[in-house]
Every structure is written in C-alpha cells, then in structure tokens.
C-alpha cells in the first residue's frame, strides 16, 4: 500500500526522545519534530502535532519509554523511578481528555513498569511500547478487512475528519478499507469533509488519499447533505475517539451531523476503531468528557486577517457525541458489532480464542 509517511512516530537516537511528523504543517510541508521533555510531549498532543486516538496512544507509549531511559541514565531506579513515571504518566494522560487511547496506553505502560521485577524498568517499557505499535498495525489491517466487506466496487464513501495512517500506524481505521480497496484494485469514490475548524479532512485525509491514488473529492462540511441527496454516497465511514458501553461514540466535531443526514437519506453510517477505544466503564455519551479548544481556531486560524470580529465569543468543542441509535455498525479488529451495542460490545472482550464475536 502507498503510505505517504510510514514512520510518522518513532524513537529518536539513543531511544531517549520521540520523533514525530508535525501534522500541523501538512499538506504543504513535511516537517519532523523531536521531543524529549514532558512539556514538549504534552505540547505535541495539545497542539495536534500528533493526533488521532490510536496514534496518540502509540506516541504516549514511546514517550514514557523515552522518559524512563532519561531517568535511568540519571540514576533513578526501583520504587522511586516507578513513582516518578506514574506522575509523568498522569500528566501525559491529561493532555487530551476525550480520546481514551491516551489513558489506555499510559495505564498499559505503567502496568508493564510495575511488572518489571529483576530487570531495568526501561527494558520492559521498551518491549511494551513496541508491542502497542505493532498491535495497532495488526488491528488496522483487520479493521480494514471487515470494513471493506461492507463495500462494493463503485461505491461512494463519505468520511469526516482524518482516520487514516497518520491517525494510527498503517492503513488507518475509517480510511483503512478505502486504502485496502485501492491496493486490491477495487474502485471507490470518496467524498472527504474538510472538517472545520482545523481542516483535518482537507489537510490530511485528502492528502493521504490523493497520495495513494484514490478518487477523492474534497467538500465543505455543509455540502454533505447535497452529496447524499444526489445519491453519490453509499456509506459513511468515520473513526472514533471513545465508544461508550451503550454504543454512543465521540468523534471529531461535526460527526453527529453527518450521522443525522445519513439517517435522513438512508445511507448506512459506520464507526471504525480498535477495541482500545471502547470504554465499557463509561455508560453513555453523556459521560464522555468533551474537550473545548481556543476560539481563535475559529476566528483567525488559516487566514492572514481575522475572519470574524475581534473579541466575538466562540464555542469550539473538539468533539461531539453520535447517539448509538444513528450507528449502523461499529467495526473493530475483532469483528463487526451491530445493535444492541449493550450486548455486542461486551461480547468482543470474551470471544472464543482466535474467533471474532461478530462478523459480516
């Protein structure tokens, strides 16, 4: 598969830093950034230099490993090192509240640190962060296979925000089936919402799909309705940052509006993501914290001059909640879940060995 930048998150020289492709500079510039301190790592997450729920989890794993290498080099060890890493992990996990993969990866790394008896803690963390990355690649491929089973050659697919390789590790989630189809010579047409206010669809999704040779058409967010009305869309594929136990999902702001339009026009609406985004401890979407960002992203970002009156109040939530009643299916690496999600989602976590709980 043609992937524009396959190593967009990796360890730096000496494995005491992390190198990332700065996604805020795309599509005009391919710029890497090396982060070494906790402050730099948190800034990279908050400023969306690294973004996408799975990618943030991968990044967090590498960050904790790099920080452990630095601490061990300064003589930290044993309980003192563990306590310091727990504090660093808590700060890292608080960088963005909505995407559950961030806290999931931090918790997993800390469990590995606690279980590292008889060896350097960083050795255990090094294995774990690499395992998180490899597992994500495997998960993305499986999600792509399940998602592709829902499409036919010639279909039009509408996607919102960016859930491709840049947001994950390889293939992606919502874009994975499309890239897999391209790899296999299956013809699809994609309509990519620009995704205001940060334009992840315009800057990232359109770039990734164009680089892969996919037939992609960029549209403004408020054009999704007419594209569906024209009969050009046979399915909507979106990613997710958290899935509640009842099937409500958090994804980039504007996703719920796409789901409402899809229901009106009779277009299936699919959510794609790894099981690490499923939070069974969260009963429903009302309990998912929604990050609110600086209103300047609406007032003046991307423009030489402000495009709104100075000082005008702005409401800028980064995510919204799509009710489970609007979701046709949730596609994971373990299979395809359909309503009622209160039954199908928990079943994913206790399948027969090597078999998906739900399949096409």
Automatic annotation (TrEMBL):
UniProt-listed Enzyme Commission number(s): 5.3.1.23
SUPFAM superfamilies per record: NagB/RpiA/CoA transferase-like
Pfam families the UniProt entry points to: IF-2B
Keyword Ribosomal protein in record: no
Residues annotated as transmembrane: none
Site feature Transition state stabilizer, where: 161
Pathway annotation: Amino-acid biosynthesis; L-methionine biosynthesis via salvage pathway; L-methionine from S-methyl-5-thio-alpha-D-ribose 1-phosphate: step 1/6
GO molecular function: S-methyl-5-thioribose-1-phosphate isomerase activity
Reaction it catalyzes: 5-(methylsulfanyl)-alpha-D-ribose 1-phosphate = 5-(methylsulfanyl)-D-ribulose 1-phosphate
Domain of life assignment: Bacteria
GO biological process: L-methionine salvage from methylthioadenosine
Gene3D superfamilies cross-referenced by the UniProt entry: translation initiation factor eif-2b, domain 1, Translation initiation factor eif-2b, domain 2
Amino-acid positions noted as binding substrate in the UniProt annotation, renumbered to this chain: 51-53, 96, 200, 251-252
Keywords: Amino-acid biosynthesis, Isomerase, Methionine biosynthesis
Positions annotated as active site in the UniProt record: 241 (proton donor)
Protein name: Methylthioribose-1-phosphate isomerase
Function: Catalyzes the interconversion of methylthioribose-1-phosphate (MTR-1-P) into methylthioribulose-1-phosphate (MTRu-1-P).
Listed InterPro entries: IF-2B-related, IF-M1Pi, IF_2B-like_C, Initiation_fac_2B_a/b/d, M1Pi_N, NagB/RpiA_transferase-like
């Amino acid at each position: 598969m043609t992937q524009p930048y396959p190593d967009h998150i990796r360890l730096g020289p000496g494995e005491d830093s992390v190198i990332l492709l700065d996604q805020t500079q795309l599509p005009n510039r391919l710029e890497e950034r090396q982060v070494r301190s906790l402050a730099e790592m948190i800034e990279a997450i908050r400023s969306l230099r690294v973004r996408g729920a799975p990618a943030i989890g991968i990044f967090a794993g590498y960050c904790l490993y790099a920080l452990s290498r630095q601490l061990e080099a300064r003589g930290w060890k044993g309980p003192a090192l563990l306590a310091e890493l727990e504090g660093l992990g808590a700060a890292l996990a608080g960088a963005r509240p909505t995407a559950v993969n961030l806290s999931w990866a931090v918790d997993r790394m800390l469990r590995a640190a606690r279980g590292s008896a008889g060896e350097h803690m960083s050795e255990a963390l090094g294995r774990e962060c690499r395992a998180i990355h490899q597992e994500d690649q495997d998960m993305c491929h499986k999600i792509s296979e399940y998602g592709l089973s829902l499409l036919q050659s010639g279909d039009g697919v509408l996607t919102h925000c960016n859930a491709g390789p840049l947001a994950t590790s390889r293939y992606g989630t919502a874009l994975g089936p499309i890239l897999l189809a391209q790899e296999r010579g299956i013809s699809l047409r994609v309509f990519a919402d620009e995704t205001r206010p940060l334009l992840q669809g315009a800057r990232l999704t359109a770039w990734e799909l164009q680089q892969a040779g996919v037939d992609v058409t960029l549209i403004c967010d408020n054009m999704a309705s007419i594209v569906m009305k024209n009969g050009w869309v046979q399915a909507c594929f979106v990613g997710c940052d958290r899935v509640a136990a009842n099937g409500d999902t958090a994804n980039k702001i504007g996703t719920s509006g796409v789901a409402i339009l899809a229901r009106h026009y009779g277009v299936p609406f699919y959510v794609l993501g790894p099981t690490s985004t499923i939070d069974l401890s969260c009963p429903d979407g009302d309990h998912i914290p929604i990050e609110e960002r600086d209103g300047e992203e609406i007032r003046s970002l991307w423009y030489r001059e402000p495009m709104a009156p100075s000082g005008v109040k702005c409401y800028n939530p980064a995510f919204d909640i799509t009710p489970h009643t609007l979701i046709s299916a949730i596609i994971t690496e373990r299979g395809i879940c359909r309503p009622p999600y209160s039954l199908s989602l928990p079943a994913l976590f206790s399948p027969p060995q090597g078999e998906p709980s739900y399949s096409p």
